[in-house]
Amino acid sequence: MTFTQFPMEREVVLSAGDTKVGVMPDICLVSHFQVGNWQVLYRASETGNIKRWGMPLMIPNFSRLKQGIFQEKGTMLPIHGFGRTMPWKVLQQDAASITIQLTNNEQTYAQYPYEFAFTSQIVAGEGTLTYTLTMENRSNEVMPIAPGFHPYFAVAQKDKTDITIEGLPNIDPRTIQWATQPPDQPNSFPHSVTVHMPHEGDLTIAEQPVEERYSLSTMQVWSEPSTAPDHDFVCFEPVVTSEDGLNRPADRLNIAPRSSHRLILQLSARPYES
């Protein structure tokens, strides 16, 4: 539909060569990633549902907490955290990059009682989208956190069984009942996964080490059945840890007082030659 065509009025467009990246900075949403004619990230053209779109950041928690409770503080946190519903501000912007930030406020403090600054830098390169997330703990106590990314990759329902994947041996698209029983499962993330998208190209989802350290240990694979509107996507979600991970001290990140933690995710897309 025309109302979801790229770029929309609220989208900032970053570019490098034949690569275009769209960002909706107010909600920290990478809304578009295109290399040549290949639109890599899905846009919910049927419903316009912004929650089924692009690559949102899930912070401070991925997925659901048991009964919605953050046990450390006895507070309630929504599914996928509050980062995608809070107003972020732009710190820097040029033709190929944008840096945005969310800091704590009264609303966040009621759910997640820490002083923090979350900073997202999104950079368009030749065939790449590089996302650097810096989580700064401005509190005087350890700040638990378990964020993740939720990219929706565009693929037609009829083509999902023809996807091939390098790096996720437990996922075989040929054996999945995509129309009726799509996957929703966590897998070990070996820091780099390559997905061969039928008719489109090769997509690599990779975490780059920071000071020889990796932060994203899990990849959740998920899609919707064909009865759901806007189902022509598959999500390969690189996350710190699986559902309820914020409540598992050994699995989450624990940022020391007055310090920060940085992670880098890169998407690389190479279209097939037509």
Write the CATH fold name.
Beta-galactosidase, Chain A, domain 5
Task: Flag low-confidence runs.
Answer: none
Kindly, what is the distance between the CA atoms of the first and last residues, rounded to a whole number of angstroms?
26 Å
Helix-strand string: EEEEEEEEEHEEEEEEEEEEEEE
Based on CA inertia axes, which overall geometry fits? Answer: globular
Q: In angstroms, what is the radius of gyration?
A: 18 Å
Number of strands: 22
Describe this structure in words.
By secondary structure, this protein is mainly beta. It has a single domain (2-271), classed as Distorted Sandwich (Beta-galactosidase, Chain A, domain 5), CATH 2.70.98. It has one helix at residues 106-111; strands at residues 12-16, 19-24, 29-35, 38-39, 55-58, 69-70, 75-76, 89-93, 97-103, 116-125, 128-137, 143-145, 148-149, 152-154, 164-166, 184-188, 192-197, 201-208, 218-222, 233-239, 253-255, 259-271. An eight-stranded antiparallel β-sheet has the order 8-9-10-11-22-18-17-15, with no helix packed on it. Strands 1, 2, 3, 4, 5 and 13 form a six-stranded antiparallel β-sheet that branches. Strand 8 (89-93) and strand 9 form a beta hairpin. The protein is globular.
Any descriptors?
274 residues, mainly beta, Beta-galactosidase, Chain A, domain 5, six-stranded antiparallel β-sheet, 22 strands, globular, Aldose 1-epimerase, isomerase activity
Task: Give the topology.
Layout: E1 12-16, E2 19-24, E3 29-35, E4 38-39, E5 55-58, E6 69-70, E7 75-76, E8 89-93, E9 97-103, H1 106-111, E10 116-125, E11 128-137, E12 143-145, E13 148-149, E14 152-154, E15 164-166, E16 184-188, E17 192-197, E18 201-208, E19 218-222, E20 233-239, E21 253-255, E22 259-271
Antiparallel strand pairs: 1-2, 2-3, 3-4, 3-5, 5-13, 6-7, 8-9, 9-10, 10-11, 11-22, 12-21, 14-20, 15-17, 16-19, 17-18, 18-22, 19-20
